[in-house]
Amino acid sequence: MSKHLVIMAGGIGSRFWPMSTPQMPKQFIDITGCGRTMIQQTFDRFGGIIDIDHVWVVTSASFKDIVADQLHGINPQHILLEPCMRNTAPCVAYVSWKIQKEDPEAQIVVAPSDHLVMKVSEFKNYIKKGFDFIAKGSRILTLGIQPSRPETGYGYIEQGAMVEEGMYQLSAFKEKPDLKTAIEYIQKGTFTWNSGMFMWSADTIVNELRAYAPGIAAIMDKILPDMFTDKEQQVVNELFPTCEKISIDYAVMEKTRIAYVQPAEFGWSDLGTWGSLHTLTPHDDSDNAVIGDSVTVIESQGNMIKVPNGKRVVIQGLQNCIVSEHNDVLLICQLSQEQRIKEWHD
Amino acid sequence: MSKHLVIMAGGIGSRFWPMSTPQMPKQFIDITGCGRTMIQQTFDRFGGIIDIDHVWVVTSASFKDIVADQLHGINPQHILLEPCMRNTAPCVAYVSWKIQKEDPEAQIVVAPSDHLVMKVSEFKNYIKKGFDFIAKGSRILTLGIQPSRPETGYGYIEQGAMVEEGMYQLSAFKEKPDLKTAIEYIQKGTFTWNSGMFMWSADTIVNELRAYAPGIAAIMDKILPDMFTDKEQQVVNELFPTCEKISIDYAVMEKTRIAYVQPAEFGWSDLGTWGSLHTLTPHDDSDNAVIGDSVTVIESQGNMIKVPNGKRVVIQGLQNCIVSEHNDVLLICQLSQEQRIKEWHD
Questions:
Q1: Do residue A314 and residue B325 have CB atoms under 8 angstroms apart?
Q2: Which chain A positions have a beta carbon within 8 Å of B315's beta carbon?
Q3: Comparing C-alpha atoms, which of A344, A303, A342 is closest to residue A13?
Q4: Is B323 at the interface with chain A, CB within 8 A?
Q5: How far is the alpha carbon of A273 from chain B, nearest alpha carbon, in Å?
Q6: Can you give the pLDDT at residue B344?
Q7: Region B96-123: what's the mean pLDDT?
Q8: Nearest Cα to A292, choosing from A10, A30, A25?
Q9: pLDDT tens digits along B229-238
């Protein structure tokens, strides 16, 4: 049995405009200024566990070259191009059928391409433990993030009985709660955040999709003969759009009887907002988070500043703002108004 | 008698950083976004009065190519390069000696390169009237700007008896006053702002410099034989730095007995501050002055925004700030703190 990594990289990251654009969304950007893009960091944190030969990326056709460029050495056959967005179930199905064809013994971890993990060694331990767990039988494992606050922006996973140390039966998926409900979840202590990370064998997920998403499975069976051939993309372009638009959570996770959850804590953030980036970036004494190596900040408090390295910037007398420059587009706005950024794009 | 224009272009414009830099100061920049730089606008407003053949520029050696580029068709012999800044008297002396050598009958108007004139046809009338006035005898004429407020940032000119319609004897130069004094000047009605614009014949100013600045005159007499030769710059580089550092106001205007003032009103500004640019630029309903054709301003008041055309900028929730981007340098600061911009340069 060999281990494979599937990176889901189809997002458009519109909340981080102008840094993230439809042409170069969040996952392909070095958001934190560490020198590696989000998808590169995602790959890096599986180092020592999964070889580049066993890395798969599902993304949009327009990002093919970016993926090949950023994940140097990836097998071009492992970059799967969705002709349109059909949520996560068809995406997972496509890559699972294809992995199974190449490696019927494959064990798989699925990870979003644009999340942040700050405690990488802890992360690796959870992943290794997860692989051990799914090797013991036909099991679907999710990684649940130990919540640090009653967040209303995430879905939650309710855990049931413990089946072994650190592993629980998955009792229920919960939609994004209101604040009162979120507080109850935190108090109960049996709820974790749904991180969108899954582990399973190729056999297991293909079987579960056959059982609970037979329409999608039938389409994948039609594509299967042409996988790894010159005709693959053409057939995918034709048939993939006919898949039902449904998440893997709805299609499989809520129905399957073999779902488990491993609560985890590894300094996770989905970096979904400028505010979360502000929280996670080192601050100066005045609560300014600055990414960019040529920025001078004077008499300013609580700002999130993200500009290219080398860009000379002087900021004086600014409070609680986002200042972001990318590709010669400049945004200055109140941090509290960031949910409106989408309205301001061209 | 033919008419000559001397443009004084040695300034460094450091208050408008980052738009204005030591390498490309204010006078060589299209500050107002009209499509012409300040020195080009200065030249333009003498159109129909003075030919390009009779235009002279005194500037620093480092700006030679910029001047030649921006004032297309200027005689390269008419670009005078100061090896160092010695205030205005040596500068005026150098160009006056040189003009006199080329054209002993020359009548001259001297103008700063970085001021704004909004009523150009009125301006032309004042200049024409000024040339008529100095043609009548050995006279030095200054243009005094009718003050619109008790400004403490300018010097003032006190006028004496009227000698003909609109022309007065120059009674006194006054240093930048305190507010109380400035209010008195305004109330008296016989004070105008010193615009730094002068009109005289070459003979007159050379004679007055001989009388009141004999040291500088002696140095110019030494340079004179090499003017218009290959040796000129070498000799200037050697002798010009030995000139006393003194303004034409102190050296000549305060001593001469043939000084006159023509009070004028032609929408003048020295554009000395971001605040003055803010005042003079058209505003939106929220008092934002925007120069730049791809700027969106939302829920913001009282800002001065100056970015290159084509630069996409979104600004939300910003009050009373300067936002200036130039040559990939970005400044955001409180408009009220603009006098500190010099401190923030590299």
A1: no
A2: 331-333
A3: A342
A4: yes
A5: 17
A6: 84
A7: 96
A8: A30
A9: 999 999 999 9
Largest CA distance in chain B: 64
Question: pLDDT tens digits for B53-92?
Answer: 999 999 999 999 999 999 999 999 999 999 998 999 999 9
CB A6 within 8 A of CB A94: no
Is residue A24 classed exposed, middle or buried when 0-12, 13-18 and 19+ CB atoms within 10 A define those classes?
middle
Q: What does DSSP assign to residue A178?
A: P
Q: Which of B269, B281, B114 is nearest to B193 (CA)?
A: B269
Report which of residues B175 and B45 the model is more confident about: B45
**Model confidence at B186: pLDDT above 80:** yes
For the record, the structure tokens of B31 come out as: 């500050």
Decide if pLDDT at B13 tops 80. Answer: no
CB nearest A329 (choices: B312, B329, B333): B312
Residue type, B33: G
- Compute the distance between CA of residue A328 and CA of residue A308 in angstroms, rounded to an integer: 10
Question: Cβ–Cβ of B323/A329 closer than 8 Å?
Answer: no
A201 backbone dihedrals φ, ψ, rounded to 5°:
-90, 160
Give burial (CB, 10 Å; 0-12/13-18/19+) of A162.
Answer: exposed
Cβ–Cβ of B312/A346 closer than 8 Å?
yes
Q: Is B345 a residue whose pLDDT tops 80?
A: no
CA separation for the pair B340, B320 (Å, rounded): 15
**Which token pair is B20?**
């204005």
What is the Cα–Cα distance from B95 to B231, expressed in whole angstroms?
A: 16
pLDDT at B19 over 90: no
Quote the minimal CA–CA distance from B328 to chain A in Å: 6
Distance from CA of B113 to the nearest CA of A (A): 28
Rounded distance, CA B174 to CA B167, Å? Answer: 19
Compute the distance between CA of residue B328 and CA of residue B326 in angstroms, rounded to an integer.
5
* Residue with the larger pLDDT of the pair B14 and A212: A212
ipTM of the complex: 0.75
Write out pLDDT tens, residues B187-199. 999 999 999 999 9
A330·B328 Cβ contact <8 A: no
Best B16, B274, B330, B345 residue to mutate vs chain A (most A CBs within 10 Å): B330
- Does the pLDDT of residue B14 top 90, yes or no? no
Pairing state of beta strands A259-264 and A167-174?
antiparallel
Is the model more confident about B175 or about B184?
Answer: B184
For residue A153, the model assigns a pLDDT of 86
**B339/A296 Cα distance (integer angstroms):** 17
Residues of B in contact with A311 (CB under 8 A): 328-330
Contact B317 A334 (CB under 8 A): yes
Mean pLDDT to the nearest integer, B109-133: 96
Interface with chain B: mutation pick from A294, A301, A314, A331, highest number of B CBs within 10 Å: A314
Residues within 8 A of B (CB atoms), A 259-318 only: 296, 298, 307, 311-318
Kindly report, residue by residue over B147-172, the tens digit of the pLDDT.
Answer: 989 988 899 999 999 999 999 999 99
Q: Which residues pair with A145 in a beta bridge?
A: A193, A264
Which chain B residue lies closest to A315 (C-alpha atoms)?
A: B332
**Please, are residues B111 and B4 in contact by the beta-carbon 8 Å criterion?**
no
Chain B residues whose beta carbon lies within 8 Å of the beta carbon of residue A315: 331-333
Instruction: Report, as ranges of residue numbers, the positions in chain A whose pLDDT lies below 50.
Output: none
Residue B346 pLDDT > 80:
no
Question: Taking the alpha carbons of B186, B188, B189, B195 in that order, is the dihedral positive or negative?
Answer: negative
